[in-house]
Write a structure and sequence with these properties.
2 copies of one chain form a homodimer. Helices cover 36% and strands 21% of the residues of chain A. By secondary structure, chain A is α/β, with parallel strands linked by helices. In chain A, the strands form 3 sheets. In chain A, strands 3-2-1-4-7 form a 5-stranded mixed sheet, with helices on both faces. Chain A has a 5-stranded mixed sheet with strand order 10-9-8-11-12, with helices on both faces. Chains A and B meet through strand 9 and helix 6 of A and strand 9 and helix 6 of B.
């Protein structure tokens, strides 16, 4: 079995694995996100030590990274984290040092595009060519796979920042996003729930009106992305979606908001098949990084 | 030069051309959309007569068609118009009769995906792999090309039916869409303008407040699609966009609504390059059909 390195590069930790697939993870390490140099040095050391001690070759590395990122292969700053507010991490080359130190092909994509690729390879979107993955938690982000490839475009999608309908009579809360106020992330992220209701979302009981409102915003986003992109499946992951009471509420309201316009049985009769939790749970990111590496070699 | 047949199949007319490209259109015919049989018979006759009289071979046909459509090649009703409200045209096979009568490969896509492909081949998105085309007129629709291919997915995108933020204090008009009321099409199509202001959009003077409101809704849609899909270009065509005063208004409001979040010079400094009119004008649809045919053979 060919082995691949996967790095889920997040703002608090870098999760590194060496694996041939989800059921064959040979080694794993969580590395705290400190300075770029220290963090990347620790990442490099993990992969070097593995190959030196086992004499097993790694074919390629995949990095599913927090952003924003430069994903344009023709750009001089390809492989960089660009304008992040995270101190010390703006304009940091991620791909360059990994490639130089490890001498391997490095695939690089957003954390959510990576998770989408992982879900397509081994999770809830196996065998599908056109689907979306969202994480709804501290922030909100979305990854898209169409015709089998991730969508990147000008920069990369920022699906958590789309504006949503906002009924201020029902919900006078102005929104949490410093850029857009009441975008998807501004209305429906974990921090927006905490700010609106005065306590962490995890402390709100399942029958609290917060959840119906939360489902309303997620469903509005689903209306937008299902109408606008026609996915065959939408995977909803992240901390907020661990509140399982959300799934039936989101599905019903999405169906109501689409209101029969799109005449597909998947929407009209099998909405449970359209909007689903991740098949890989919270492993979508790091296994997605492995899948990115695998695709880079194929 | 290889010749291709292009059919822009619309609800009022089918425009048919035989061409090798935009500057070499050998024949063209507008056929009224009557019954499916009569219309398709007339289309078939046009292409047959051309090849019989000139002895020039046509390599393939492209059809950019009003919908909704079945675009799934594995479906038994692939190539059909499906649930259209247009009398007589629901569940009509378009590709089958053309293929059977003309014996040519037939490429089939939505009218807006076709127009997008045309703009990518010869128009405002030449050389680009990731871009959007919208028509804003009697209806609103969008086509998407990512990684060089059109997005289809479950059915096909219905970008005109995404929900938009709607400030009812500024605009108490409830919206025109029979399915969603105040979606993009319900708030910003030509008929919604006529319904809201009591006269056709073409009779509203350029300084009428209708245009600032129209630009507001188009910009909200741009915020959603630029954030959500990260296109390198967005082409805005259709009858409403012939009001050229809309472009600067839409660009400015899109920039304001994105509010510096996406740190790309194209958005921050060159928004005129991001949001543009069609390069092929109202020929995007039929030339797009020719481009679809060309791609089918390549």
């Amino acid at each position: 079995m060919d082995l691949f390195g996967g790095i889920e590069a997040g703002g608090t930790k870098f999760v590194c694995v060496i694996a041939s697939g989800p059921d064959d993870v040979r080694a794993e390490k969580r590395i705290a996100t400190t300075t770029p140099k220290e963090t990347l040095d620790n990442v490099i050391a993990f992969f070097k030590e593995y190959t030196q001690s086992t004499h097993e070759a790694i074919q390629a590395l995949g990095v599913a990274c927090f952003g924003p990122l430069d994903l344009n292969p023709k750009s001089p700053t390809y492989g960089y984290i660009t304008t992040t507010p995270k101190p010390g991490w703006a304009n940091v080359d991620v791909v360059g040092p990994l490639k130089a130190a490890l001498g391997l092909p490095v695939a690089f994509d957003t954390d959510v595009n990576g998770a989408a690729i992982g879900e397509g390879a081994w999770g809830a979107a196996q065998g599908m060519d056109d689907f979306l993955y969202f994480t709804i938690g501290t922030g909100i982000g979305g990854g898209a796979v169409y015709n089998g490839s991730t969508i990147r475009g000008l920069v990369h999608p920022e699906m958590g920042h789309v504006l949503l309908p906002h009924d201020r009579q029902r919900d006078p809360y102005p929104g949490f996003c410093p850029f857009h106020k009441d975008c998807f992330e501004g209305l429906a992220s974990g921090p927006s729930m905490q700010d609106r209701w005065g306590k962490p979302a995890t402390e709100l009981p399942p029958d609290h009106p917060a959840w119906a409102l939360e489902a309303e915003y997620i469903a509005a986003a689903m209306q937008i992305f299902v109408s606008g992109l026609s996915p065959t499946r939408v995977i909803l992951g992240g901390g907020v979606m661990q509140q399982e009471q959300l799934f039936p509420l989101v599905r019903r309201r999405t169906q109501e908001m689409l209101n029969g316009y799109i005449q597909s049985p998947v929407i009209l009769e099998r909405i449970d098949d359209l909007i689903v939790p991740p098949g890989l749970g919270n492993r979508a990111g790091v296994l997605g990084a492995v899948a990115l590496a695998q695709r880079a070699v194929k």
